[in-house]
TrEMBL record:
It comes from Flintibacter faecis. InterPro entries: AAA+_ATPase (IPR003593), ABC_transporter-like_ATP-bd (IPR003439), ABC_transporter-like_CS (IPR017871), ABC_transpr_MalK/UgpC-like (IPR047641), Mo/tungstate-bd_C_term_dom (IPR008995), NA-bd_OB-fold (IPR012340), P-loop_NTPase (IPR027417). Coiled coil: none annotated. GO terms for cellular component: ATP-binding cassette (ABC) transporter complex, substrate-binding subunit-containing. This is ABC transporter ATP-binding protein. PANTHER family: MALTODEXTRIN IMPORT ATP-BINDING PROTEIN MSMX, OSMOPROTECTIVE COMPOUNDS UPTAKE ATP-BINDING PROTEIN GGTA. Keywords: ATP-binding, Nucleotide-binding, Transport. The lineage of its organism: Bacteria, Bacillati, Bacillota, Clostridia, Eubacteriales. One of its GO terms (molecular function) is ATP hydrolysis activity.
Length: 372
């Protein structure tokens, strides 16, 4: 049984006050997605791509322009949010300041008339899961951002929802707290096994937490797959460049035939990269497209390397990795290396590109060109 199904989902905002939208603009366009019972799905995309709108439609906080939403096998289009059996954890903590953590966590159950002993049992069951046992008597004002977020999630899951919806729950936290909370969410989700939709614009968060990632741009689902699928097998240039840090190098190229082999060549650069044989069925002499390769698939060749000598334009030492930038025409080709040599701008290195890891994209549409 699917945990969540979105079928041909559309959202169009009518012209409304300050937001400059026209009636023809869809915030969400023909979104189709199926999430299995117990799966953790991340909605990932840049600001304004429609992630929150989709989440709010699932929650029943926003009207649907067209399409259907099923939670389990229930069509919930016309159900009130409180009847959808969902738990919500949004980026603002929305706690009641005059109430203790215990009372905040218990609040929704009390409102539903659940009896006192049952409420106490559930609060005490969830508190260790979210590591808030020691905080139950505290007032919200005394909590750190990470603690508030744990309480916030506890409040969402105490209702034993069929579906947990989280909107950028870590966005208020700084670097370290964010990383720690990410690990905690992973541990907690693993335990409660609740179907979860998690909105984020942070690809690292999506990659590390999710079973599946829905990459969205301009209201349109670009790709839906496991983290490995969207990383290794992106369907287009947008997904390829959005996933990964630093992002995939994407360079305009013309393939040329020399003797019986093809090479990627680049404007205003003498760099030549051998085209892998698997692409010979799609390239030709003078064929133009974009070539993508991840920074870790560009290597610094040793002394006996056959790689092309290239001059280093930028060098950053980040401790456990080094990032080298090579100018290729107007673009910068980035590579990541564990090589401990302290390079400097102007040094010459031999560049080797792992041809088997290159991707080709259509110059106009950005769609992936696959070997035939
Ligand atoms: N109430 C509204 N009225 C009109 N347009 C809206 C409204 N809410 C959102 N939009 C528009 O719908 C589009 C999608 O917004 P949404 O908030 O879903 O994006 P998002 O991907 O969640 O972005 P962010 O990460 O910044 O929250 C945007 O163009 C936004 O301006």
């Amino acid at each position: 049984m699917a945990g969540l199904t979105l079928s041909h989902l559309y959202k169009r905002y009518e012209n409304s006050g300050k937001k400059k939208k026209t009636v023809n603009d869809f915030a969400v366009k023909d979104l189709n997605l199926e999430c299995e019972q117990g799966e953790f799905v991340a909605f990932l995309g840049p600001s304004g791509c429609g992630k929150t709108t989709t989440l709010r439609m699932i929650a029943g906080l926003e009207d649907i322009t067209d399409g259907d939403i099923y939670i389990g096998d229930r069509r919930v289009n016309d159900l009130h949010p409180k009847d959808r059996h969902i738990g919500l954890a949004f980026e603002d903590y929305a706690m009641y300041p005059p109430l203790t953590v215990y009372d905040n966590v218990a609040f929704n159950l009390r409102a539903k008339g659940v009896d006192k002993a049952e409420i106490d049992r559930r609060v005490r069951e969830i508190a260790p899961l979210m590591q808030i046992d020691d905080l139950l008597d505290k007032m919200p004002v005394k909590l750190s951002g990470g603690q508030k977020q744990r309480v916030n999630i506890a409040r969402a899951i105490i209702r034993e929802p069929e579906l947990l919806l989280m909107d950028e729950p870590l966005s208020h936290l700084d670097g370290k707290a964010r990383q720690a909370m990410r690990t905690e969410i992973k541990r907690m989700i693993h335990k409660i096994k609740c179907t979860t939709v998690y909105v984020t614009h942070d690809q690292l968060e999506a990659m590390s937490l999710a079973d599946k990632i829905a990459v969205i741009n301009f209201g349109v689902l670009q790709q839906y797959g496991t983290p490995a699928e969207v990383y290794d097998d992106p369907v287009n240039e947008f997904v390829a460049s959005f996933i990964g840090d630093p992002p995939m190098n994407i360079l305009e190229t013309t393939t040329v035939k020399i003797d019986n082999d093809f090479f990627f060549t680049f404007q205003d650069s003498d760099l030549k990269i051998a085209v892998p044989k698997r692409y010979y069925s799609v390239v030709s002499d003078g064929f133009r497209c974009k070539m993508g390769v991840r920074p870790m698939d560009v290597l610094v060749g040793g002394a006996d390397s056959q790689g092309t000598p290239e001059k280093i334009t930028t060098f950053e030492n980040l401790g456990d990795e080094r990032r080298i930038g090579i100018s290729v025409g107007e673009s910068l080709l980035m590579l990541i290396t564990a090589d401990e040599t302290r390079y400097r701008a102007g040094d010459i290195i031999k560049l080797e590109v792992r041809g088997d890891k290159t991707h080709l994209f259509d110059l106009e549409t950005g769609a992936r060109i696959k070997e035939k």
